Amino acid sequence: MDLAYVWFFIVGVLFVGYFVLDGFDFGVGMSLPFLGKDDISRRQIINTIGPVWDLNETWVIVAGACLFAAFPEWYATLFSGFYLALLLILLALILRGVSFEYRHQRESLRWKAGFDRMIVIGSAVPAFLWGVAVANIVQGVPLDVDHEFTGSLLTLLNPYGLLGGLTTLLLFFTHGVYFVALKTDGQVRMDARRLALRSGLLTVVVAAIFLAWTVAAAFGNGAPLVGLVVLCAAVAAVLLIASVLANTRDREGWAFGFGAGTVAFAVLTLWVALFPNVMPSSTDPAFNLTIENASSTDYTLTIMTWAAVVFLPLVLLYQGWTYWIFRKRVSRTTIEKAAAAAH
């Protein structure tokens, strides 16, 4: 198989990794107003992702770098056309990262509440806009003969794009609440289970509509891998329902695992529906950016392939080791003792 096609799916896997890992970070951040009844519980929630959020976020940097190297034409069109949406995502991620680092610098409740709001905003904005962006890439955007985006931010806020944003927002929220239930104890854990049930049922409805729309569009556009699109969508739907059922039985690990699988197969559904294009043109199919006309040279892709073979397993091992080290639950008692000692 041509290396360009291999790298199309490698980049897809990198984005799957990003959305699965940073997705529950977003969900944890968005859950603060619902689960954080006092400062101790809010610290408990934030500490569940404290050791890993920045490591999870690096996946988007790696994915973006690989996109730039493997598909420079796609990268140029995407980042020039979607610059405002991507800038908002970047600013939100900076806002969230700053909040994690500065929230604990003062004991003032007003100070902490301000940064808590920034964490919520910095989590919700990317969770929504990533869905809008990816849905529009799959649906197609106005491109001219030079593969330049001719629309605006409002062009992206179409019904399918907005539904995609709402779907990722709810998916990540539920995924994050599963993680909170898995990593905490006491009242926060109980509240997270109940919240996950309510958000999970809503997510099932919204995600079903979005996946059905995606499958119908794939059939209508004559996507060459339409059978695989249907399969990925079906697996995502089954895993989402399984996560809700596991949560009702207090099987937190299974619920989180099924939730991660849901996010992964939902992203794969969109990625497979996109094939063999990387950015379809809604202006004229002749202006489509495809895997072949957007990719780098074979020499570049060969070097990248060897680099991926060497370094990707090391990255996965390091990330796995990090999660193993911080595998224990975040106890409310431990935080209370630390707060008492600080005073």
UniProtKB/TrEMBL annotation:
Principal cellular location given in the protein's record: membrane
Cell compartments where the protein resides: Cell membrane
Coiled coil: none
Pfam short name (any one): Cyt_bd_oxida_II
Keyword presence, Acetylation: no
InterPro entries tied to this protein: Cyt-d_oxidase_su2
Transmembrane segments: 6-32, 77-98, 119-139, 159-181, 201-219, 225-246, 253-274, 303-326
Domain of life assignment: Bacteria
Keyword Transmembrane helix: yes
Topology with respect to the bilayer: Multi-pass membrane protein
Keyword annotations of the record: Cell membrane, Electron transport, Heme, Iron, Membrane, Metal-binding, Transmembrane, Transmembrane helix, Transport
NCBIfam families named in the record: cydB
Family: Belongs to the cytochrome ubiquinol oxidase subunit 2 family.
Descriptive protein name: Cytochrome d ubiquinol oxidase subunit II
Source organism: Microbacterium memoriense
